[in-house]
Amino acid sequence: MPHVQTNRLRIYYEIHGSGEPLVLIRGLGSACDSAPQLVEKLADSLRVLSFDNRCVGLTDQPQQSFTVADMADDTAALMDALKVESAHVLGISLGGMIAQELALRHPQKVRRLALACTHAGVRTCVRSPAWASQIFNEASEMPRPEARRHSVPILFSRKTIRERPDIIEEMLQTAMNNNQSKASYLLQLGAALTHDTYDRLHEVKRRTLVLTGAEDVLIDPGNSRLIAERIPGARLVEFEETGHVFFLERVDEVSRALIDFFQGE
Prior knowledge:
alpha/beta; eight-stranded mixed sheet; 8 strands; globular
């Protein structure tokens, strides 16, 4: 299995496809085996560098607190180790927070920036409804398989839950085991809870696409609107009748929008 030793930690990575490089930064508790449909679609046109963040999957899991900025530096170190001078960047959820910091701390490494279902920090974010926060908190106390199934109402739209049980089951199977202890999960969560780029987003100089599910109850779409307003020239796309994992619910449309953005003039 491919690992690379950076100057920070040993990171597990995968490369799919060919073409311009795209660094895919995943969310809380997500490892390389999550969202394979999206990776496959993107890899038709791009060389996708996918990896496990620190404290999940097959990457090192140091048990000291860290920040989202540290995770952005991990990403930059991975790119250096693999001799990727610059790349398009797609960050999903927590990965979107990491991508924001990467664009701010290492702007020379980012060609174009896509931020999916993410926010600019707890201090200024549009809050989830109480029922969604309750499900999230309950799931954090459960074993991984039970937690993912319990989280379905805050990951998918009501229409998807009602009409497309197949993609829900597929997600549950691929995300069954992420090799993450509760301690490592809490370290990642702690980083997310201290994330704050709100006052610096105007410094992002790369062309930016912001994407969200219109019915996302985990990270309210108002957060994507706020980010799009704060980053000069950013474009916002909302996918109707989708939730937090809109990129699974509408994988064809989302991948096409991303490829068009990364390959456009």
